[in-house]
Amino acid sequence: MASKNITIALFLTINLVFFGFTMAQAPGPQAPICPRSSTQVQACVNRLTSIVGLNVLPLTQCCSLVAGLAPSVASVCICNALKLSVLDILGITVTLGQVLGSCGVSPPAGFICA
């Protein structure tokens, strides 16, 4: 009787271990976030709001915001700046590609600033 209980306990233990391994899954990919501070993003927003009309000024604040970042992370930072700008509210279209292109960064394929 004792050996039967040990066998059942061993069988259940092995099943629990294997069941735990088969149910473990790797976490899904995390969406990139902008590692820059809000003051740096605000400087880029201020520069974007001065682009109204034909008065296109250099986007040095935006380019310094994305300097050294991967294209996907840089796209997120500029997208956040575009969302915060008054241009979005006024309906003036400044595309992500225009801003990143002026900084020498190409947005990743399929990236949508939503």
Automatic annotation (TrEMBL):
Keywords: Signal. It holds the Pfam family Hydrophob_seed. Residues 34-113 form the Bifunctional inhibitor/plant lipid transfer protein/seed storage helical domain. SUPFAM superfamilies: Bifunctional inhibitor/lipid-transfer protein/seed storage 2S albumin. Residues 1-24 form the signal peptide. Belongs to the plant LTP family. PEARLI1 subfamily. This is Bifunctional inhibitor/plant lipid transfer protein/seed storage helical domain-containing protein. It comes from Brassica cretica.
